[in-house]
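Severity: low
Component: inverse-folding endpoint
Summary: output formatting inconsistent between runs
Steps to reproduce: submit the following structure tokens with default settings.
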């Protein structure tokens, strides 16, 4: 593997792009690439500070001296052998494709969905991170239905995360319908829920430690684990209360 770096500096952020570039060629490791770039930035900075012209050239890197040295100068663009391709005519992509329509056809990126889930659906960062990573498109569709049908979005998010129902085999509406139907069954609460909470706390010492250092996402993680133990049938409000009380006394 061989690496190359092109480096050119502006005097300030307001300055125009410089009309030169310095190429460092045939670098054989990322560490040497880093060192070469650092050296070259310092070298060019000193020259610019002294109002000296920086020569457009190709340089090499000496790993023993941690310095670059001049190999050959390339004052003009033709020396890089730039030339038009005679067999490829100019292309106007706007005329060939409806770019706006194509852009809308692409699925939204997971990071974009994550932000939307937090800002619009109002689930936690922990929940949105997992859903956007594992089930971004379908998970968001399920949660939008939950909002529309006034179903607790945090409970639905936990059901998606804990795979309470096979989302890949269900449509978003089918997922919500099954969720609502199962919610009519008595939730796990009381003594049984207390036992499960204590079991989760014992099995998740790192999350407990994180919570004690002020990481709020740790509580959401523990609630998710309680939901996992109960297959999504825990009384979330009671579980949250039991966890908070137990962790306070730890």
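Observed output (run 2 of 3):
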């Amino acid at each position: 593997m061989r690496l190359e770096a092109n480096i050119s500096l502006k005097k300030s952020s307001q300055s125009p792009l410089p009309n030169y570039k310095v190429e460092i060629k045939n670098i054989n490791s990322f560490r040497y690439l880093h060192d070469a770039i650092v050296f070259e930035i310092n070298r060019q900075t000193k020259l610019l500070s002294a109002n000296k012209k920086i020569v457009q050239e190709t340089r090499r890197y000496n790993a023993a001296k941690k310095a670059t040295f001049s190999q050959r100068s390339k004052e003009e663009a033709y020396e890089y052998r730039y030339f038009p391709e005679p067999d490829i005519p100019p292309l106007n992509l706007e005329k060939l494709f409806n770019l706006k329509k194509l852009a809308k056809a692409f699925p939204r990126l997971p990071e974009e969905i994550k932000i939307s889930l937090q800002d619009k659906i109002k689930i936690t960062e922990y929940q949105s991170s997992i859903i956007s990573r594992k089930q971004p498109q379908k998970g968001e569709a399920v949660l939008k239905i939950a909002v529309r049908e006034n179903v607790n979005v945090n409970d639905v998010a936990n059901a998606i995360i804990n795979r309470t129902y096979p989302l890949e085999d269900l449509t978003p509406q089918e997922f919500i319908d099954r969720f609502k139907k199962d919610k009519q069954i008595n939730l796990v609460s009381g003594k049984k829920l207390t036992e499960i909470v204590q079991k989760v706390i014992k099995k998740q010492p790192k999350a407990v430690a994180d919570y004690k250092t002020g990481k709020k996402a740790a509580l959401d993680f523990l609630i998710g684990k309680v939901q996992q133990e109960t297959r999504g049938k825990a009384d979330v409000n009671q579980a949250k209360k039991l966890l908070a009380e137990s962790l306070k006394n730890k």
